[in-house]
Amino acid sequence: SHLLKGNGEGALKEFEITRKLAPDHTEAIFSIGAIYYKQGDKEKAINAWQTVLGLDPNHAKAKKYLEMLAE
């Protein structure tokens, strides 16, 4: 996996492909947000995590990360 090897761009591409094939795949979208966050792009991370909550309002990790950024 690109993510395990520290290749955020490669991992991002893989998750984007997953999202195109399965647009409601909340874990792929959550992971996209995590990569954006690690890259310092908080706005894109927040957008990804808000999308996750739109699909699954009970997604605990997305809620946690959004709350963390709101502080």
Which runs of at least 5 residues are low in confidence (pLDDT < 50)?
Answer: 1-5
Relative strand content:
under 5%
Specify the helix fraction band: over 70%
From the alpha carbons, calculate the radius of gyration and give it in angstroms: 12 Å
Count of discrete alpha- or pi-helical segments spanning 4 or more residues: 4
Question: Which structural category fits the helices and strands?
Answer: mainly alpha
Helix and strand sequence: HHHH
Oligomer: single chain
Description of the structure:
With 71 residues, the protein is mainly alpha-helical. The chain contains 4 helices and no strands. Helix 1 runs antiparallel to helix 2. The longest helix is centred in the N-terminal third of the chain and has 14 residues, at 8-21. It is flat. The N and C termini lie far apart (32 Å). The model is unreliable at 1-5 (pLDDT under 50).
